Amino acid sequence: MNDSMVAAEQAAGGADRAPLLEMRDVVKTFPGGVMANDHVDLEVRRGEIHGILGENGAGKSTLMKILYGLYVEDEGEIRLDGERLDITSPADALDVGIGMVHQHFMHVPKFTVVENVVLGLRESAYENPILRFLTRDYSAAIERIRDLTDRYGIDLDPEARVHDLDIGQKQRLEIVKALYRDVDLLVLDEPTAVLPPHETEQMFDILTSLVAEGDLSIIFISHKLDEVTEITDRVTVLRDGRVVDTLATAETTRAELAELMVGQEVLFDVEKEHRAPGDVALSARGITDRDYRGVDLVRNVDLTVREGEIVGLAGVSGNGQAALVESLVGVSEPDAGTISVKGTDLTGKPTRAFIDSGVSYVPADRTNEGSAADLDLTYNVMLKQYRQFRDGPFLDYDAGRALATDLVERFDIQVPDPETPVKHLSGGNLQKLILARELSLDPDVLVANQPTWGLDVGAIKYVHELLLEERDDGTAIFLVSENLDEVLQLSDRIAVIYEGEIVHETTASEADRERIGRYMTEGSNATDPVAQERDQ
Amino acid sequence: MNVETSLEYRNETPRWLGWAVPVLTVLAALTVGALPILLAQTDPITVYLTMFLDPLTSDYRTGQILTRATPLILAGLAVYLPLKAGLWNVGAEGQIYVGGIGAAVVALTVDAGIVVLLPLTLLAGALLGALWGFVPGYLLARWNANEIVTTLMLVFVAQNLNSYMIRSVLPGPSNYPYTETFPDTAVLPPLAESGILSHVHAGVLFVPIAAAAVYVIMDRTAFGFETTVFGSSQAAAEQSGMSRFKIIVVTMTIGGLLAGAAGVSQAAGTGGRLSEAISPGYGFTAIIIALLGRRGVPQVLAAGAFFALIYVGGNAVSTSTGLSTAIIDVVQALIFLFLITGEFFKRFTVDVRVTRDTAEVV
């Protein structure tokens, strides 16, 4: 290519050139009939950062998994540079130049950065296959990584061990892994979900420099409006599996995007009567929990949940919610602190004692922790209740089956037949099953972690209704959710967790969405805008 | 030509496939096994007819099948039960050996009538086997020591302990690698005076007892429920308040006990003494039996009986056709290998597409 051609092409500008990626009429339906992608069209131009915006469950991840070969589309086609692609595995995707940075990092902690980068690649200084097999000469690879990191201003030492890296560096490693494989298109799946705010800025700088030369395109998946407006050139909004619109970011506003993302109406009205809460049902004092390295996951958390109220815990995922929840339901014992249920001290007691004291639990991980996925409905319904069906050492499975039939009917759970392993149920039906089980225990305390994550709208509504009904029956509910709207809609009181600490507490009537958002992302550094105004 | 193969995980295994796969895989193994037999200039048809029909037509050999099936099924259950909890007891072989040791120590040192001595012999062997299962179970539950490693290592401990017992503690006549013969009061008697059952010792009765017990534990008790849930998902079991410690330790201990009973049956029944060859690898074959039979106790029984048939049939082949035992071993190993591979087809569909080259498509 001579200089004039390059110049001509640059002059033509991105908009007139054929798009790098085209996805046309992509349809993906999951068992249970949920249409995760409903004739989705997506066009990504060369050299742009293209945002994909949508709420949890809008179909963003499904679309990207199709692009990356993790799912196969039911209908539709994908073209890269005009050529039709048939991608059935991530290896195929990488071959054609599509790289992906997952939310959950995939590397070998004991290896160095360079070892992780070249993992799976068979390049070597030697032609001879035996020499290639026997040698481990990374000097060329290290040099190449240094070139890449210098060129794009990425702060990463190729010879560092991965387990010594912090979370931001690990993410940069993922980006370098893709760059090393010469990708043309880099997909970042909710990259900021795991990052503290200052790391987010650094990552945005890197993304900007990556597209500066015009060769690389980036798909940036997010449900955070401010990030999308800050970093993207264009944005495609997904809602309920459909494309609502694709817009140039500069020509739109946050308010417009928010409306497109959520729809005109509020998803659904939650009718919540005001009730006066009763006695304290769940009380936790000074909960501190550390991981195996001694790093604090939860620091000195105090919590009280009364009968007949929902306390919502808002926070970006990975800020200690998992450890806190496991402590509250007795699955793991915290390093310090006391927990009591209805006045009974349960500190240090086994999980069983928590269940017997009336604590029910809806885990975030439905298929691994919430249910035994390979087993059938009866087993899963009896998971905790089986103790009631004991007759000496023996177990009355008939009683279990009767309970299963009863719950299926009462909670309207769609199951092909009772013998089917529950892993074949749709997410919504599986969650109904788990809730049915936990609520049929007639709990005094219900701890629900991400109860609507990944569910379709109908199922979300149903879960919300169940939680409110249960609250009205006098159960103390502790709701953990990354979805701030959910927390705001359902809770009577709201707490915000940031880096393992409760940084903000408020009531439903006094809750300010924006302020909570700031506490979620900045912790106690968030300056209180109200206080600020007063000071001025 | 381009050959494309694609694998897909089956969500459900069709019922017919459950039966067709073992039959077809055994046939395939026999077809491949015909090759070494032909190389040894023997007629494979004769060999196979002898292998599968001879054992069923002679009283002695039919009795042999029952005798052989006893340790195979007991050890198979010893692997099966922990497997239900997701645990790999690959040390049934060692548990068989210590079962034999326990039996021998009591049989050769205690002097009592059959009513006292025989049960005591059984108890000693079974309990020592249980100890050999308890230790890896405890190490796993308490310290997270991988049970595959610990059970396997304890096999070597058991085998060498056995040699030591035979050579130094309970040495037999002259320098043969076995102990004195047990007194009659410590030997499992034949089941009948004549007929098939005269070739079968009372140890075979352990099988229905053990099978019924394992079935009841797994399918009827609360502990079996907990074990099944734990085997499917540890996290679900733990958040439901089930005790990981109890499930691991108890299943491993019962497993050891069952394999220990197999050792007792070998020493007090088949041999009438403790020898260094108390088990020709029954404890390892048991792993395959448990894998093939992991859907339920009846399947374990069927797999164990089939393997016993193959073993006895192999003996019949070597005596009647003079085919080298090495080649018989090859055929037997092929059958095991094919059966295990066959499991793959129950879980995956394989789609092979052959297309002609279409010009230069990159």
A few lines on this structure:
Chain A is an alpha/beta fold and 536 residues long. In chain A, the strands form 5 sheets. Chain A has a 6-stranded mixed β-sheet with strand order 6-7-8-3-9-10, with helices on both faces. Chain A has a 6-stranded mixed β-sheet with strand order 16-19-20-13-21-22, with helices on both faces. Chain A has a 4-stranded antiparallel β-sheet with strand order 2-1-4-5, with helices on one face.
Q: How is this structure best described in words?
A:
The complex is a heterodimer of chains A (536) and B (362). Chain A has 536 residues and is α/β, with parallel strands linked by helices. Chain A has a 6-stranded mixed beta sheet, with helices on both faces. Chain A has a 6-stranded mixed beta sheet with strand order 16-19-20-13-21-22, sandwiched between helices. Chain A contains 20 helices and 22 strands. Chain A folds into 3 domains: 18-262, P-loop containing nucleotide triphosphate hydrolases (Rossmann fold), CATH 3.40.50; 278-358 and 443-536, Rossmann fold, CATH 3.40.50; 367-442, no CATH class. Helix content of chain A is 37%, strand content 24%. Chain B has 362 residues and is mainly alpha-helical. Chain B has a domain at 70-310. Chain B starts with a strand and ends in a 7-residue tail after the last strand. The A-B interface holds A 88, 329-331, 350-356, 361, 363, 365, 368-375, 379, 382-384, 386-387, 390, 393-395, 397, 424 and B 6, 11, 220-226, 228-229, 232-233, 235-243.
